[in-house]
Amino acid sequence: MKVAAVQFQPRFGEVEDNLRRAAELVRANPGAAVYVLPELFTTGYLFRDRAEARALAEPAAEGPTLRTLAQLARELDAVFVAGFAEREGDCVYNSAMVVSSSGLVGVYRKTHLFLDEKDWFDPGDTGFRVFEVGGVRLGVLICFDWVFPEAARVLALEGADILCHPANLVLPYAQSAMRIRAIENRVFTVTANRVGKDERAGKALAFTGASQITDLDGSVLASASVDREEVIHADIEPTAARDKHFTPRNDLFADRRPEFYQRLQTRTA
């Protein structure tokens, strides 16, 4: 099957225009079974405050993002994993939705908030979930989740074949780290990063692009530029991720010794 990462530059606050432009990129690159779009691709990233994030957020089950992606999913017979600002009651989350031709499959809410996101969003409460669509098991991480190896490991233990990683990366080494996450867990990874800058209220953030798709052994199957909108893709056999043999005598999961990992359950000082 073919998987794709959509590298995109949203215009802050212009939700309908961002949806239109992202759809144009996808329609110009048909043929993938799974498309991953960046974190917060409909809104842009650098919010002034929580009130602004809330004003641009939408309910997962009935907002413009779902309508657009569901239409694309039906047109292209594909699955979409895409980051958006989610509003539920009084809460605002940095979330990603999984959408198939049948509609909304599920939502993941970002667990590890980065920097000023702690002022804009509530910490995610979904936990790490695997979504099975068409016989393929998709795990979802959002941006800064990459720095926590436990997140990828939990998804792998839950059966993920592919780690879908919507991102707005500003640090220079996340792409390299995702290659390690692939090796550690023998999973495919698809990182869809954004490009460009957000400059607002006296602050500026530049995003690193370089979206990538990795194989089970961490090799890069496809990579994008650091500064252009583009769609990259690769052909993979997702069920190969279910064989966790690292060598003929070493299985990554069978060789684990959780009785010695209790320290992972406690917070360091």
Task: Describe this structure as you would to a colleague.
With 269 residues, this protein is α/β, with parallel strands linked by helices. The protein has one domain: Carbon-nitrogen hydrolase (Nitrilase/N-carbamoyl-D-aminoacid amidohydrolase). It is 22% helix and 30% strand. The protein is built from 6 helices and 16 strands. A 6-stranded mixed sheet has the order 5-4-3-2-1-14. Helix 1 (15-27) runs parallel beside helix 3 (64-76). The chain is globular. 46% of the residues are buried. The mean pLDDT is 96.
Helix percentage: 10-25%
Q: Order of strands across the biggest sheet?
A: 5-4-3-2-1-14
Overall number of domains: 1
Elements, N to C (H/E): EHEHHEEEHEEHEHEEEEEEEE
**Biggest sheet descriptor:** 6 strands, mixed
Q: What is the end-to-end distance?
A: 45 Å
Rounded to an integer in angstroms, the radius of gyration calculated over CA atoms is 18 Å
* Helix/strand class: alpha/beta
CATH architecture call: 4-Layer Sandwich
In terms of topology, how is this protein built?
Layout: E1 2-7, H1 15-27, E2 34-36, H2 50-56, H3 64-76, E3 79-88, E4 91-100, E5 103-109, H4 117-120, E6 130-133, E7 136-140, H5 149-157, E8 162-166, H6 174-185, E9 188-192, E10 197-200, E11 203-206, E12 212-214, E13 220-223, E14 230-235, E15 245-247, E16 250-251
Parallel strand pairs: 1-2, 2-3, 7-8, 8-9
Antiparallel strand pairs: 1-14, 3-4, 4-5, 6-7, 9-12, 10-11, 12-13, 15-16
